[in-house]
Amino acid sequence: MITKRIIPCLDVRDGRVVKGVNFTGLADVNSPVELAKYYSECGADELVFYDITASAEGRRLFTDILCETARQVFIPLTVGGGINTVDDFDRVLKCGADKVSVNSGAIRSPQLIFEAAKRYGDQCVVLSADVKRVDGQFRVFAKGGREDTGMEAISWIKHGVSLGAGEIVLNSIDTDGVKGGFDLEMLAAVCDAVSVPVIASGGAGKIEDFVTLFKTLPKVDAGLAASIFHFGEVRIRDLKAALKENDIPVREV
Fold this sequence. Notes:
Helices cover 34% and strands 28% of the residues. It has helices at residues 32-41, 64-70, 86-94, 104-108, 111-120, 153-163, 184-193, 207-216, 227-230, 236-245, and strands spanning 5-13, 16-21, 24-30, 47-51, 77-80, 99-102, 125-134, 137-142, 147-152, 167-172, 198-201, 222-225. The protein has an 8-stranded parallel barrel with strand order 1-4-5-6-7-10-11-12, surrounded by 6 helices. Helix 2 (64-70) links the parallel strand 4 (47-51) and strand 5. Helix 1 (32-41) runs parallel beside helix 2 (64-70) and helix 8 (207-216) packs across helix 10 (236-245).
C-alpha cells in the first residue's frame, strides 16, 4: 500500500524562512538550514524549499543557501522559485534538489515543462499551482500569488500534466495560513482531473485536518504544511501516529 507523505514547506526570503496568511504579511521564522536538518531527523517524508520572491523580483534562485540546506537533508528535496529555463533545472539539481517545482516560469512558457520532463524525466518536474477563487472560478495566480493570470486552474493543471509534469502541488491561496483545514473542494476537482500524485497545500491547522484530508480524498498523495510545523503546534511524530490510528498508511518515524 502506498504511504501518505507528510511534507514541511520552507518559504525562503532573503535567506530566511518566513510565513504569512493568504500569501501576505510574511514574518520571520528561522534559518532554512536549521529547519531542514530538524525535519530530516524527525520523520518528514520530503521537504519543499521555495525561494518565494525570486519570480516577483525577476532573479534566479539563491543557490548558496540551497546548497547548504541540501547538505542537511537525507529525504527527497523539492526546490522552486525563479525557475524559468531548463538551465535553471540543471543548476538547482546540481545544488542537491531531487525534484524541481515550476510555477510562474511554466505559466510564461508551458514548453518548459515538456523540455524539462524530456531531459530529466516526469518524476523530476513538479507543477506548483497557486489557486484562488475569483468570480466563482478557480483562478491561477503567478509571482507568489501576486498576479491573476486569468487562467482557469483545472484546465491549466491538466495541460501541465499532458506536457509532462509528474506531480502537482495545489496551493490554495484562500486557505493559506488560515489553519481552518485543507481546501477539499479545490483538491477534489484537481484529483478528478489528473492521474499524477497531488499534494495538498494551504490550510492545515491541526492533526485532524490531515486525517480529514486523507479520509475524504484518498486520491491525495501528500499533505504539505508550514507554520504548524515551524512553530511546534504539530509534531510530525504525533501526526503520523494519529494517521496510523485512523488506518491511513504512513512511513514509520
